[in-house]
Amino acid sequence: MQTGMLAVPGAELYHEVRGSGPALLVILGGGSDAAMAAPLAEALSGDYTVITYDRRGATRSPLAGPPAGQRIEEHADDALRLLAEAGPEPAHVFATHSGALIALDLLARHPGRVRRLVAHEPASFDLLPDAAHWRAVEREAVEICEREGIGPASHWLGEATGVSAPPEPAAGLPEWVRDMLTRMTANIETSLRYEMRSFCRFVPDARALRGAPLTVASGAETRGKLMHRCTLAVAEHLGVEAVELPGDYVGYLSNPPAFVEGLRPLLR
User: Fold this and answer.
1) Cβ distance 215 to 243 under 8 Å?
2) Under 8 Å CB-to-CB from 224, ≥6 apart: which residues?
3) 117, 138, 173, 267: which could join 177 in a potential S-S bond, CB 3.0 to 4.6 Å?
């Protein structure tokens, strides 16, 4: 594995590169970083040059100035610059949750750079019929964070959405997992304070994505839950059929072999 820092406007991006073959960029959701994608990247590194990274504002991808509200488009531009570093050929992209929204914007605005996108559980809450409720949930989560801190806010948001907050970095866990969980606490606070307001309101450009090389997927174990509802809403908005991948909203981490078995044909 190779690691590096890429300077982009307003930030530096920590990234990791594994394997050989066509480029595959992995974009994860808010609070996550490259370590969370490592098992998936290792499993795919025999077929692809897999690029994983910490999104801007994460602990290892510092901003050049004080934190401020962030936009999907800004993060999609970061992804574009990472692809430019990988070479001129179009890349495969796997992206999940808010990362899937970033990837959909990347594909809509730069279709020549993406060979195929698998968008896993894109969290476009504004496409839901009860969008007003989820806007209220988002506001409450931010207020709890500012009033009581990230721990209570993460717990409350997990209860409200069914997407559990990460566990504490207990002593019995492998060192790399403890380090990842420690970073995630800070990363989730950044995501909650500076991304959630705009990200939850992002709606993919259906006109630009009509006929694009993409698959919208959800986890088989989230069927009927919030992220599955979001996936179906995005698929309907884009005029495509949603498919299922093994596991829940983090199936790529909890069971990489099964997840990769389902993901490989979608990337082709």
Assistant:
1) yes
2) none
3) 173
> Tens digit of pLDDT for each residue in 20-60?
999 999 999 989 999 999 999 999 999 999 999 999 999 99
Q: Is the pLDDT of residue 172 over 90?
A: no
Give the global pTM.
0.96
The C-alpha atoms of residue 248 and residue 268 are separated, in whole angstroms, by 22
Q: Give me the residue label for tokens 């007003």.
A: 132
pLDDT tens by residue, 134-170? 999 999 999 999 999 988 998 899 888 888 777 777 7
In DSSP notation, 113-139 reads GEEEEEEES---GGGSTTHHHHHHHHH
Q: Which amino acid is at 251?
A: G
Contact between 177 and 126 under an 8 Å Cβ cutoff? The reply is no
| Number of other residues whose CB lies within 10 A of the CB of residue 203 | 16
The DSSP H or E segment spanning 13 is strand 11-19
Residue 120 and residue 222 in contact, taking contact as beta carbons nearer than 8 Å: no
